[in-house]
UniProtKB/TrEMBL annotation:
CDD domains per the UniProt record, alphabetical: ACAD (cd00567)
Provenance organism: Symbiobacterium thermophilum (strain DSM 24528 / JCM 14929 / IAM 14863 / T)
Protein name: Acyl-CoA dehydrogenase, short-chain specific
Coiled coil: none
Pfam families: Acyl-CoA_dh_2, Acyl-CoA_dh_M, Acyl-CoA_dh_N
Length: 401
């Protein structure tokens, strides 16, 4: 798929290097994406290449053998990777975000932190959070996990079932949320997926993002040591995406959906340039209504990418102001995802009925991009928080005057 050049959002040599690596991988992944989507199969070969290329260690600190990519660098790479295969990009994005957030906050015990950095950099270990449950809905809503942790000699025993665990077929570690038995609180635990009592149940059969391998993770009296309790939380404070320290790493989600939108737009531009029905004197690109669709997509891509990278740049450059930036993270996600949906829809209109057929990538991109609506943070919560912030500012200003 054509990639618009030059990309004015890529401004440094490090950014260019990471985007080039992502582009090499994306071009190879694009040739497999349709088959994995159709077969609802997991792209094991993609993840072997992500490991071999060193992409999995992108956000590991340099002193631990990684690239030490900051948020902006990671988002640029992820957006490019998603142009080849959105499902693979979203899957590896969860891993990169867990590691990047840990590198930024160092919130875990030192031994667990060192273990993850060492294993990701050394052997390409993969990690993701396991928070969602059918009973609680999205963890961003603050539901109490039904997965339980009860005390055992030297550690804890975890029992429960997690849904939507992306990368389940290849994960080495899962960061599992669980409620403390007999307490209102709970914690996040580091679980080796190869441990006794851990099984993957293949439940993922969805409309889009079919190759993420987001199956259920079942834990039955899984033992973890005391040092594997990473963080604790209170009632109603169970979400690690888009909240608290390191919240900026949630922006890996809209970056992927913008990558999907860019892929659709790039295809539509090329299709318009080369499609020549015999009812017209030239390509459909000469038609005013086609130019209007493509032009509006250019505007929406500029708006969405500007919002995303403005917030990301500020997150990297102004760590002392990150608390103030948190509401903008949700705003950037909602804006980017909604504009991505519109961009892909217009690309489908450019192709016409041909876009419905599987020999073109648009029908898959159309399905994949819709999953962004259901990734955290949820739109209603973002809008509510922004409204409350605006009302609070107005009340404060009125009180001062």
């Amino acid at each position: 798929m054509a990639v618009p050049e030059p990309d004015l959002f890529v401004r440094t040599e490090r950014q260019r290097r990471f985007v080039a690596l992502a582009g090499e991988l994306a071009d190879r992944f694009a040739g497999r994406a349709a088959l994995h989507d159709r077969e609802n199969s997991f792209p094991f070969e993609n993840f072997a290449e992500l490991r071999a290329s060193g992409y999995v260690r992108l956000t590991v600190p340099v002193e631990w053998g990684g690239e030490g990519a900051n948020l902006t660098e990671t988002l640029l790479a992820q957006e490019r990777l998603a142009q080849g295969d959105g499902a693979t990009a979203l899957g590896i994005g969860w891993h990169l975000a867990v590691v990047g957030k840990l590198a930024e906050t160092r919130a875990w015990p030192p031994a667990a932190t060192a273990r993850i950095f060492r294993e990701v950099a050394g052997r390409g270990a993969l990690i993701n959070s396991a928070a969602s449950e059918v009973e609680t809905g999205s963890p961003s809503r603050g539901g109490r996990p039904t997965t339980t942790a009860r005390r055992a000699p030297g550690g804890w025993l975890l029992t429960g079932r997690k849904s939507f665990t992306s990368l389940a077929p290849v994960l080495d570690y899962a960061v599992v949320s669980a409620s403390f038995e007999g307490s209102d609180g709970g914690g996040w635990f580091l679980v080796q997926t190869g441990s006794p009592g851990v099984t993957v149940v293949e439940t993922w059969d969805a409309l889009g993002m079919r190759a993420t391998g987001s199956h259920d993770l079942v834990l039955e009296d899984v033992f973890v040591e005391d040092g594997d309790l990473l963080e604790t939380f209170g009632r109603g404070n169970t979400c690690q995406v888009g909240t608290g320290d390191g919240a900026g790493w949630a922006l890996h989600i809209p970056a992927v959906y913008l990558g999907i939108a860019r892929a659709a737009h790039g295809f539509a531009v090329e299709y318009a340039r080369t499609r020549r029905p015999n009812s017209l004197p030239g390509p459909i690109a000469d038609q005013p209504h086609i130019q209007a669709l493509l032009g509006q997509n250019e505007i929406d891509l500029l708006a969405a990418r500007s919002a995303l990278y403005t917030v990301a740049d500020r997150w990297d450059a102004e760590p002392e102001r990150r608390g103030e930036l948190v509401p903008l993270l949700g705003a950037a996600k909602v804006l980017a995802v909604n504009l991505a949906l519109q961009i892909v829809d217009r690309a489908m209109r450019v192709a016409g009925i041909a876009g419905l057929f599987r020999q073109l990538p648009l029908e898959r991109l159309y399905r994949d991009v819709r999953a962004g609506l259901h990734n955290p943070p949820m739109e209603d919560a973002v809008l509510r928080n922004l409204a409350r912030a605006a009302l609070a500012r107005q009340a404060s200003a009125a009180a001062i005057s």
